[in-house]
Amino acid sequence: MKLIFAGLTGLVFGVGIALSGMMNPAKVLNFFDIAGTWDPSLAFVMGGALVVTGIGYRAVWRRAQPLFGGTFQVPNATNIDPKLVGGSALFGIGWGIAGFCPGAAIPALGTGRWEVVLFIAAVVVGLALRRLMTRMTTAAVPQ
């Protein structure tokens, strides 16, 4: 049942991304082109997502536990460190160059466009490199 609802959630997200046009990198890049062909629709998509998320969180936090799990999985880190800032900057640069964020690129795989496949491959390689760097750094530190 948990996987069915996870799949339905992904389906709703993918349909929303497709209907809003956010699978089109040109539309996303036009949002960043303030001095040229600026397209504010991404701001409306984000604003709508924030409203729905806010309502959803208010409803969910009234529950003692999740419907399909023992406890809520809430991150507790609050510090802003170089890894967070660097990762955020890298995400933003990649988004600005490619016009895709990973969340929108996954449903865009269904379009069969080579640019989407290349972007997802770059994301996977980046994740693997980061994982490798973490292992190497952890192994180098004496216990």
Explain this structure.
It is a single chain. This protein has helices at residues 2-20, 25-32, 41-60, 82-98, 102-108, 114-140. By secondary structure, the protein is mainly alpha-helical. It has one domain. Helix 1 (2-20) packs across helix 5 (102-108), helix 2 (25-32) packs across helix 4 and helix 5 (102-108) packs across helix 6. The longest helix is centred in the C-terminal third of the chain and has 27 residues, at 114-140. The mean pLDDT is 88.
Quickly list its features.
single chain; 143 residues; mainly alpha; 6 helices; globular; transmembrane
Largest sheet: none
Taken together, the total number of domains comes to 1
Cα(first) to Cα(last) distance is 43 Å
**Would you count the extended β strands for me?**
0
What is the residue-averaged pLDDT? 88
Beta-strand percentage range: under 5%
Poorly predicted sequence stretches spanning 5 or more consecutive residues: none
Radius of gyration: 18 Å
The string of secondary-structure elements, in order, is HHHHHH
* Helix content percent band: 55-70%
Shape: globular
Count of DSSP-assigned helices: 6
| Structural classification | mainly alpha
Keywords: Membrane, Transmembrane, Transmembrane helix
Transmembrane segments: 42-60, 89-110, 116-133
InterPro entries: DUF6691 (IPR046513)
Organism: Nereida ignava
Q: How would you summarize this macromolecular structure in one to three sentences?
A:
By secondary structure, the chain is an all-alpha fold. It is built from 6 helices and no strands. Helix 5 packs across helix 6.
